[in-house]
Amino acid sequence: MEYQISSGIVDSYFHKFKKILNVDVAIVGGGPSGLLAAYYLAKSGQNVVLFERKLAPGGGMWGGAMMFNEIVIQHEALPIIKDLGIDHKLYTDGLYVVDSLQATSALIYHASKARATLMNCISVEDVVIQDKRVGGVVINWAPVHREKLHVDPITVVSKAVLDATGHDCEVARILERKNGIKLNTPTGSVVGERSMSVYEAEKTTIENTKEIFPGLFVSGMAANGVSGSFRMGPIFGGMLLSGKKISEIILKSIHTLV
Ligand code: 48F
Questions:
Q1: pLDDT of residue 164
Q2: Is the pTM value of this prediction over 0.90?
């Protein structure tokens, strides 16, 4: 019995790992925008992997606001909430309140059920450059980074990479720092996020959701971060709409590659 349990896990894990070494889309970061992009892309038949360095994907959605486990969604994002079967209550003026634990677990469940492969405890530390475009990611165990162990990584190739790393815009920063290239942002570099301005931030999150370098796409707070827009705190409609928008942009881009 002990042997079967261990070998079942090892066989199944490495089968899964092999499948994600060459994918259509590699998503970095399991916050709301990354998870929703994973859901829509997988649903439309793409081979998708999402890497999250923490034990649980979900990013900043679990914690609501100051650990009050409720979040707010504006009416524009209601079709997505309904699509995922998440309970919602109208509070005022087109703003709905949602239980943050139910919303986050629904995003994880639906992405996984649509057959996106979710890989936790893995950090993306670099990108692959092929033919002057981003063609994949370089990964390692998150504890290897935390312990600063000198261990070489593994490479995953993909047709598209999505930076959904939130406030830190980690993938875009690595690409820029290591390669001296120009990004499709107002300054050509990662501008960095500005202070709180909810209305403006929700609007620009969607506007800034785009391809910023051939093969590298941004969504969610990373989209606002690279283009120097504002933060918005515990309202999540922009994150969801950004995740949906980037899935459509990536799909189009993959079709033009073929
Ligand atoms: O920050 P996060 O939730 O991303 P998001 O989709 O949503 C932002 C909101 O949660 C909130 C907000 C809006 O209301 O302001 O902050 O933009 O999730 C990003 C995830 O990426 C993981 C990180 O642990 C988090 O769960 N992550 C970041 N860098 C890496 C990474 C990396 N290099 N490799 C793997 N995971």
A1: 98
A2: yes
